[in-house]
Write a structure and sequence with these properties.
By secondary structure, this protein is an alpha/beta fold. The protein has helices at 41-48, 56-63, 128-132, 135-148, 165-176, 190-196, 224-228, 245-253, 271-282, 299-306; strands at residues 2-6, 15-19, 29-39, 75-83, 95-99, 110-114, 119-121, 156-160, 180-184, 200-202, 213-218, 232-240, 256-257, 260-263, 290-295, 314-318. Helix content is 28%, strand content 28%. The structure holds NADP nicotinamide-adenine-dinucleotide phosphate.
Length: 320
């Protein structure tokens, strides 16, 4: 089978696709024939080592000083190619989707998963491509809006950077939760932001809508506390999806400011979080936006698009 690996921290050219033996399932395991996998902002950051200021050393201590010692690919959709002894929850040929998480390994043709791990049956409402795109931005948006910011019906939500993986999920989930959603996006993406449910959209290069907002999801951290404070209503919550080390420490030490709150951190990627997102999808509250779809052989090209941070929705590579 074909399998991708990172040879060094660096540009998309550091990705190698080589041949490896096709794996067999062990006790309690499932082998998935991967049909599609996303290439996310997270993949681009792990490969390049380019992360918000102050986080670089922590990243390298976690995944490797000289090269990323994680396997490429954090999510997948495909079909069950084999089941190991003791597996009853899945059957050969069944469409599935899931997460390989931080340790990666989805950018390959066959993948071994624990049957009781982060893998679920793919619903008929999702294709392999949209199933691959499903979890990354959706889990982040759901956790920050529901569990962290406690977005309530009737509140006003601004999603700054509304049409990438996280932003496009935040607009949809915000609308589903009963908020009135405003957005910023580059002009070419204004129709997409409106189609997702945003009632007003401005170009972030010119400035955000006037507010006030109860919750602001600052996807790229481009507003920050200084840019967001005058837009936040009393009791408002600022979610910095992208935050540097100082902002993370600041939000931990002094989360409450002027009667408002700053939230940073990372989201969970466990089975309950995945099941909650699936329930949101089935209730009509979230469907991933699919952007460019490229063949697996063009994985490096997909990484180059991902690290632009200007992609519409999600990029997916498909295995033939
Ligand atoms: N905290 C967490 O747990 C977590 C989880 C997932 C992702 N992230 C981080 O969140 C960020 C976004 O991830 P993503 O997958 O959504 O990326 P993405 O799909 O590339 O989307 C980036 C979005 O940001 C917009 N944007 C770019 N520059 C901007 C600026 N200066 N001001 C306002 N908006 C701007 C883009 O808009 P246009 O395309 O219209 O230019 C696009 O909508 C990344 O930094 C990623 O590492 C954090």
């Amino acid at each position: 089978m074909k399998i991708a690996s990172y040879t060094a921290y660096g540009g998309p050219e550091t990705i190698a696709i080589t041949e490896a033996p096709t794996p067999s399932p062990g006790m309690g395991e499932v082998v998935v024939r991967v049909r599609a996998a996303p290439v996310t902002a997270g993949d681009a950051r792990l490969r390049s080592g380019r992360v918000p200021r102050g986080v670089g050393l922590l990243l390298r201590l976690a995944i490797g000083l000289r090269r990323p010692r994680v396997a490429p690919g954090i999510a997948f959709a495909g079909e069950v190619a084999g089941i190991g002894p003791g597996v009853t929850a899945f059957s050969p040929g069944q469409p599935v989707f899931g997460l390989t998480g931080f340790k990666g390994g989805a950018h390959r043709e066959y993948l071994v998963m624990k049957a009781n791990g982060t893998i679920l049956p793919l619903p008929e409402t999702l294709t392999f491509e949209s199933g691959a795109a499903f979890f990354f931005g959706g889990l982040t948006a759901a956790e920050f809006l529901i569990d962290r910011a406690h977005l309530a019906p009737g509140e006003r939500l601004l999603v700054a950077g509304a049409t990438g993986a996280v932003g496009s999920a935040a607009v949809q989930i915000g609308c589903h939760l009963g908020a009135t959603v405003s957005a910023t996006a580059s002009p070419a993406n204004h129709p997409l932001a409106r189609s997702l449910g945003a009632v007003e959209v401005t170009d972030y290069r010119k400035g955000p809508p006037p507010g006030p907002f109860d919750v602001i999801v600052d996807v790229m951290g481009s507003l920050g506390w200084q840019g967001a404070r005058s837009l936040l209503a009393p009791g408002g919550r600022l979610v910095l999806i992208t935050a540097d080390l100082a902002q993370m420490l600041g939000s931990a030490i002094r989360p409450h400011r002027d009667g408002r709150r700053v939230l940073t951190g990372t989201n969970r990627d466990d089975l309950p979080a995945m099941q909650r997102l699936l329930a949101l999808h089935q209730a009509g509250g979230y469907t991933p936006v699919l952007g460019p779809v490229l063949p697996f052989e063009k994985l490096s090209e997909a990484h180059a698009i991902a690290e632009s941070f200007h992609k519409p929705g999600n990029i997916v590579v498909v295995m033939s």
